[in-house]
Design brief:
By secondary structure, this protein is mainly alpha-helical. The protein has a single domain, classed as P-loop containing nucleotide triphosphate hydrolases (Rossmann fold), CATH 3.40.50.300. It contains 20 helices and five strands. A five-stranded parallel beta sheet has the order 2-3-1-4-5.
Length: about 425
């Protein structure tokens, strides 16, 4: 087996981990992964009681049980998980209070949202960030808004941006390599999975923790209640603002496209396409970097195998579902077109939407591109061999995807890709 990737930990990480371990062993701090204790803590912190839909309890119980039995969390992982769950519960309580205090939130219409989806590392992050620069047409949930959504952002941020910045800085101190793989900022657009995490039915958790039982359970669930919460969250963000088209993204939407359209029947979809052999080392590298923060037992080869199986199944399910949906709701985009001339592709996307790209919005998009170059935070190397992936096996397993994509009206794939490109950071 080729040598597998190693993510070096800084001295600060090791010192914090050892300190937390000693405090835990001495009984001075405890991080119980008990749903009822965390629910009680959230209620005590907020002096609120109403979580809204109580169906979150079973997913929360499963998540914490699987993290306890499978994830092999270290001291930092236990602390981070407990704090994240507590904040999500606090957000739920505060959102319900806001819906009571400002009942007009319930009347906000979420019209024809635009979802960007595709395999990870196919340009979804880049396209999401570009469209978010057009403040007249689009609205993209900012990371700080999703982290701390209450009260509705239109009423002011009241230090929430600074709180989000502190949290993100703390994470990057523990995982300095992550910024080389995927850009994060309090002001950048956030993915749907971070919104869905409030239901505790989200692909964000299997990405962060090795919890195969939870992931398998999640893939079998009816996701319509999750998208209903997603819609309520967008109502919350839109309240008090001019109604604009939400632009949203998450590769995981591939697995639940029917539930998405059940909630948003007028949704429009931009699907990005790229040769799978070029993306999987980066996908596996991203997951490895995340899990390495929270556990001392990370198996890159197992991650490579799990990612391959997961996205192979996701594409199969997606294309079956897509056949039964409105065909005019989909626009297919080739990754190479996006990275070669992103502004030209955006013009084509606007024509498909029946919109015009203003000169001001185009200028902001060009500035965004200049400020977010691939090498801004350094290079990150990754290869198939680094995750024990076999190119021939991958090529065969995703041959069906290539054929389905090529049947959409244009040829996206006309050759087998060689060893994947390195150092991509376009999301």
């Amino acid at each position: 087996m080729a040598s597998l990737p190693l993510f070096r930990r800084r001295l600060l990480y090791n010192a914090l981990s050892w300190t937390l371990h000693l405090l835990d062993r001495s009984g001075l701090i405890k991080q119980p992964l008990d749903p009822e204790l965390l629910i009680t803590a959230a209620r005590r912190r907020t002096r609120l009681d109403n979580f809204g839909d109580e169906t979150f309890r079973e997913p929360l119980r499963r998540l914490l049980a699987c993290c306890e039995s499978e994830a092999r969390l270290n001291a930092i992982g236990r602390l981070a998980l407990a704090e994240d769950v507590l904040q999500l519960l606090i957000n739920r309580l505060q959102i319900q209070r806001d819906r009571h205090d400002w009942p007009q939130i319930r009347n906000e219409a979420i019209v024809a949202p635009l979802f960007i989806l595709g395999l990870p590392r196919t340009g979804t992050t880049l396209l999401h960030g570009l469209l978010a620069q057009d403040h007249d047409i689009f609205s993209a949930p900012a990371t700080w808004e999703v982290m701390f959504p209450s009260p509705p952002p239109s009423l002011g941020q009241k230090g929430r941006i600074k709180r989000a910045l502190r949290r993100l800085r703390s994470f990057l101190l523990l995982a300095p390599e992550f910024q080389k793989i995927h850009p994060i900022s309090a002001h950048l657009p956030q993915e749907c999975i971070a919104i869905m995490s409030h239901t505790f039915m989200s692909d964000q958790f299997p990405a962060m923790y090795n919890i195969p039982s939870y992931g398998s359970w999640l893939e079998r669930q009816d996701m319509r209640p999750v998208y209903e919460f997603h819609r309520q969250f967008l109502q919350h963000l839109q309240y008090g603002r001019p109604a604009r088209c939400f632009v949203l993204k998450a590769p995981a939407n591939l697995l639940s496209i029917e539930a998405l359209f059940a909630t948003y029947p007028d949704a429009r979809i931009v699907q990005t396409h790229r040769e799978p052999l070029e993306i999987f080392p980066s996908v596996a590298s991203l997951t490895t970097a995340l899990r390495h923060v929270f556990s001392d037992f990370v198996d890159p080869a197992a991650i490579g195998n799990d990612m391959t199986r997961y996205w192979e199944d996701a594409l199969t399910k997606f294309f079956v579902a897509r056949q039964g949906l409105r065909q005019d709701a989909f626009l297919d985009v080739e990754y190479s077109d996006l990275v070669r001339n992103p502004i030209q592709l955006v013009h084509e996307l606007y024509r498909w939407l029946g919109r015009d790209l203003s000169s001001d919005a185009e200028l902001r998009m060009r500035r965004f591109l200049a400020a977010n170059s691939h090498s801004k935070y350094g290079r990150h190397a990754h290869t198939l061999a680094g995750f024990d992936m076999d190119p021939a096996n991958l090529s065969e397993r995703f041959s069906s995807y290539r054929m389905r994509a090529n049947s959409l009206g244009r040829i996206f794939f006309n050759r087998r890709s060689p060893e994947p490109l390195r150092n991509e950071k376009t999301g």
